[in-house]
Design brief:
Elements: E1 4-8, H1 12-30, E2 38-42, H2 45-54, H3 57-74, E3 78-81, H4 90-96, E4 101-102, H5 105-114, E5 119-123, H6 126-130, H7 132-142, E6 145-147, H8 151-163, H9 172-187, E7 192-195, E8 213-215, H10 216-230
Helix pairs in contact: 1-10, 3-4, 5-7, 5-10, 8-9
């Protein structure tokens, strides 16, 4: 099995989930006492979040490119970024390393198309829902029509991620907010919903949604393991 390098810390809550999922899937695939060969560089989320708010994406790209280089120097043979939002700067990461980089939207897009989905709702940070780096990739590479919540709903979804889930706070009333947003997306024609922030799976499980759930964290982790095993 090849070595998976993970850029984590955005937030550490979801990075811990990545570590668990990567190793759980490795054990399921290889059996016995196997776990994944992996490295993780954990960035400090506070300065990352501050730069997000000011929109300084070039500085963010430099920071994450540096983290990717650290992983490559440490022996990583594949790099993944354990966050949806920061794929806004994926080109800076890809240009900084010689090993492959697995984009989080691609395993999700492939799974949606395999399930026959054409119109999908997207939940994530305001950056992911409102900018085109994510929805554009789903459209151009996977032929998916993406629908996002309205402005007030986007504000609620974003606030719950940053003020609660990133701090490990999982609240029933916030789950109810997300459930109502998903119901609205379903009424607007979405056939499924993407949990397009790596913390959302802490709050929303498949049984909580009226739509089929596509969890980017789980799909990304699984795809990384499959690559690491099949490429060895």
């Amino acid at each position: 099995m090849k070595t998976i390098g993970v850029i984590g810390g955005m937030s550490w809550e979801s990075s811990a989930e990545y570590y668990k999922l990567i190793n759980r899937h490795t054990k399921a695939r290889l059996g016995g006492h196997h776990n994944a060969r992996s490295l993780m560089v954990t960035v400090d989320f506070a300065p990352i979040e501050a730069l997000q708010r000011t929109g300084d994406w070039p500085a963010l790209g430099e920071q994450l490119a540096d983290a990717a280089r650290q992983l490559e120097r440490g022996g990583a043979e594949l790099v993944i970024l354990a966050t949806n939002t920061m794929h806004r700067v994926c080109e800076a990461i890809e240009q900084a390393i010689d090993v492959p980089f697995l984009h989080i939207a691609d395993p999700t897009g492939a799974a949606l198309r395999a399930a026959g989905i054409e119109r999908v709702g997207l939940l994530g940070t305001r950056y992911t829902m409102e900018q085109t780096f994510y929805t554009g990739r789903l459209r151009e590479r996977h032929g998916l029509e993406t629908r996002v919540p309205d402005e007030a709903e986007r504000a609620d979804v974003h606030r719950i991620i940053y003020d609660e889930l990133c701090h490990g706070k999982v609240k029933d009333d916030s789950r109810a907010v997300y459930q109502r947003v998903i119901e609205t997306l379903a009424a607007r024609g979405a056939q499924a919903v993407i949990l397009g922030c790596t913390e959302i799976s802490l709050l929303i499980k498949p049984e909580d949604s009226v739509l089929p759930v596509f969890d980017t964290t789980a799909l990304h982790a699984q795809a990384a393991v499959e690559w690491a095993i099949e490429s060895a």
